[in-house]
Each structure stands twice: as C-alpha cells, then as structure tokens.
C-alpha cells in the first residue's frame, strides 16, 4: 500500500511541476480566448448595425429616386403653369379689348341718342315757335293764298315741317299772278278792303252742270 501511495504522490508532484511550467504559456492563451469571446459577443451587434446601415442606405436611395421624380414633376408643373399664365394674359388682353369696344359702342349710342333727342327738341321748339308766330293755338294757321304765317315769318331754312308745300304753292301762285298782270301786289296798290285772292278751277261738275271758280281768301277785319 505504501508503494501505491508513494506513486500517487510522485504523480501529483509531476503534475504540479507541469502546471508550473505551463503557467507561463497559459497567459497568452487566456488573453486570446478573452479576445475571441469579446469578438463573439460583438459580432451580433456589428451584424445588426450593418443590417440597419444597409436598410438606411436602401431607404436613402429610394428617397433620392422619389426626389428626382418630384423634381421632374415640378418642372412639368412649372411648364404647365407658364402656359396657363400666358393663356390668362391673352384672355385678359382680349377682355380689355372687348370692354374698350363695348365702352366705345355705348358712348356712340349715347351720342346718337343725345343727338336724336336734341334734334327732336329742336323740332318741338320749332313747332311751338311756329304756333306762336301764327298767333297762338287759337289764331289762324294760314293767311291769304293758303300761306302759313309761320312759313312767311321765318326763313326758308327754318320753316316748320309740312310748311314747304304751302311755300311752294305760294311761289307758284305768285308767279302765275305776275305773268297774268294781276298779282297780289297790284291788288294791294289799287287799294281796297279785301285781300288779294287766288282763283283756282274747281273739279268739273257732272254732265249738265257748269264749271265755276272758287275764291280762296279771307276778308280783312274792319
């Protein structure tokens, strides 16, 4: 039994010596193991970080592509806006032109209506003046020989409407009287209480009758 125990003791001593000899070479191995453990612990974080970095890069590329698309759409919209603004400018010029034409036309219509009203007022004043010249509404409208007092009082250019026929008849009667030697002036020079008269032939009578002359005129008041 003693031999076995001595052998075990020798074996333990040999192992201690080996451990003492190997202690110097274990320290580098231990450090290497620690470094490897640290690397193994950091690998998942690096992997996750690299994955997140890849996702961020992919997102950045997608955003960059979307930005390029938006820039292209912006350029297109700017072109459309420029065309719309040009069309709006042309329409505004057209509207201003039409407004100017409408204003000019309205001014022309107003001028025409003003001239028409002025012309009508002149005619009305002339008619009122003719009535006053003829002696008022109750006075005689015509004198001897069928001549209007208004036509005889005013000039030929200012005669009232409808007086030209009476003036023409007066000129015709006066010419006929001078040709026959028996005008109104001769009758007035001879003196008399009656106004000169103009004689005209009346329409022919039915068969069996006779033609007669009709004296046109008025007796002057005494």
Automatic annotation (TrEMBL):
Keywords: Coiled coil, Meiosis. Belongs to the SYCE family. GO terms for cellular component: synaptonemal complex. PANTHER family: SYNAPTONEMAL COMPLEX CENTRAL ELEMENT PROTEIN 1-LIKE (PTHR21731). This is Synaptonemal complex central element protein 1 like. Residues 174-184 have a biased composition (Gly residues). The keyword Coiled coil applies. Pfam families: SYCE1. Residues 156-222 are annotated as: Disordered. The lineage of its organism: Eukaryota, Metazoa, Chordata, Craniata, Vertebrata. One of its GO terms (biological process) is synaptonemal complex assembly. Residues 210-222 have a biased composition (Basic residues). It comes from the Eukaryota.
